[in-house]
Amino acid sequence: MIAMIVMESSNNGIKFRKAKYNDIKEATYMLLNLVPPGKVTTYKELAILLSTSPRVIGRALKENNKPIIIPCHRVVGSNGHLKGYSMGGLEVKKRLLLIEGVEVKNYTVPKKYILKLTDILMS
Predict the structure, then answer these.
(1) Comparing C-alpha atoms, which of 121, 100, 108, 115 is closest to residue 49?
(2) Of 4, 54, 110, 112, whose CB has the highest number of CB atoms within 10 Å?
(3) 29 - beta bridge partners?
């Protein structure tokens, strides 16, 4: 896996460095704004885009202190199953998705609602 690289400007010009956890967390939050109401993406999709693991994405989303603004409820497992939601549990996540028009049956979102960010951003 290729590491995510961060470019920074300094008095000495531009420098590159391997992304740290906070960089990945910030990038995760930015990517979530690409997922419109009525769609979801997966931990795996975000992990592929950010050259990290789905668990790191899950940790970043767990630390989200601005739910709705940073719509972490729009992230599901790659099989469509709802996974943890720190702001009220799976029932709250399910209700938010239903309000946005996403079908949820047995805590699973049908594939037609899953947005493949990798297809959009890596084509």
Answers:
(1) 121
(2) 54
(3) none
Can you give the pLDDT at residue 1?
A: 62
- Alpha-carbon dihedral sign for residues 50, 51, 54, 58: negative
User: Do residues 26 and 64 touch, judged by C-beta distance below 8 A?
Assistant: no
pTM: 0.90
Radius of gyration of the chain measured on its C-alpha atoms: 15
Handedness of CA 84, 86, 92, 97 (dihedral sign): negative
Second-level CATH architecture of 20-121: Orthogonal Bundle (1.10)
Catalytic amino acids? Answer: 72
Neighbours of 34 (CB within 10 A): 14
Contacts of 5 (CB under 8 A, 6+ apart): 16, 17, 18, 19
| Dihedral-angle region of residue 84 (phi above 0 means left; psi in -120 to 50 means alpha; beta otherwise) | beta
